[in-house]
Amino acid sequence: MRRLTLFLALTSLSLSVSFSLSLAEGEGPNDAPTVDVLNAAPNVDAGDAFCAPGIYSRAPELCPEYGPAADNAHIGSVQIPATVPQLKITPVDHANEPILTLAYARVIAPNAPVFASAEDALTGANPIRWFAPGFVFVSLVGAAKEGQPVYQINPGQFMRAGDLKLYLKPPKYEGIVLAEQPTRPFGFVLRWFRLCRKPGVVEKDGTVNCDVNPNVDPVDRPDRFIILDKVKVGQWYWYMVGPQQWIVQQWMAVVTPAKPPDGVTGKWIDVNIYEQTVVAYDADKLVYATLASTGRNIFPTRPGTFKIYQKLPNYKMGGAEGKSDYYYLEDIPNIMYFDEGRSFHATYWHDQFGYKRSHGCVNLSPRDAKWLFNWAEVGTGVYVHDPSGKTPTDPAFYGFAASP
């Protein structure tokens, strides 16, 4: 009679699965029956629950790892609200302000000449100086557009168009002003990704294998999500951003609300080298968050606690003269020095925030740099740290840095 009752109960749920149920020898009436799942084929795409919540809660091993019942159980286990929470953000009104007030160009010709007049530049006569080969950018005077034969770069300085590559589309990325203190970690999506129904596997070559959720749109920059749960598979975490919606750690930069470091009061800025994020705090209130680009592994941004000691609305940077990594960058906006020559500043030459790119400075998008420049003061604390522990902390490793 027990077998028949259990069989009828399961049949009434219209489950697309075959079970073999039997009491093992010596099994008492209060013991669970042994269950062999012979064939399980839930129609998940059609939204079938496969296991009703009551069955799932009593025997989750009989049920698939995804589906409405599994979601309900997981949501309850990690205390996720019935409605997936969203970050509360205060929109920034740019009032039609341009992202950058200047146009820029990269010097692409080795030993490119500079001339005292447009006429000399057109004929190639009487150069007054030359740019050494390297990573060199100049700012352009006046309105610049494609097709001009000559560009003015400074008063009394002109260059030929063929020696330059115009950068007329400034980086548009920008962070967020928080209208309400987040209670959970949140993350910025770094690249296009198809969300997965459950955590997958990252192969040794970096390939991501997972059960893609076809019922939700792919995510991409500048999407951001509150993180509802995380699971570690191998060496990588997977973050849950919604029911049956998981993203792998490599494609998300995570911000975890933090307390001020010891000895820091009032306004302070958190620079997370591992996550490549910059977060502005007023005491323990999270005010602003964005992606950044800190120093590459060979030129790391030094961990430590510092203070902003100088602010410059606009200045040039350069270094490594005579070396293969020589660079010269004109008119960098919104510079704030905090550790010798290391600074926060706007970056007009790349839009890959969220990845290490610099010689030691903290690269920000133009709009992020402007917001931070207007908010911070000389004396504002700066806390640079690497939760992975891979960035050197020995002061002897670091020399004076005046780098972008």
The number of helices is 5
CATH domain class name of the largest domain: Mainly Beta
Distance between the termini: 78 Å
* Strand residue content: 25-35%
CATH architecture of the largest domain: Beta Barrel
Question: What does the largest sheet look like?
Answer: 7 strands, mixed
How many domains would you count in the coordinates? 4
Q: What number is the mean pLDDT?
A: 84
Task: Give the overall shape, derived from the CA principal axes.
Answer: globular
Instruction: Kindly name the structural category.
Output: mainly beta
- Relative helix content: 10-25%
CATH topology of the largest domain: L,D-transpeptidase catalytic domain-like
| Cα radius of gyration in angstroms | 29 Å
Widest β-sheet, arrangement of strands = 3-11-22-21-20-28-23
Count the beta strands: 28
Q: Could you give me the name of the CATH homologous superfamily of the largest domain?
A: L,D-transpeptidase catalytic domain-like
The poorly predicted ranges are 1-49
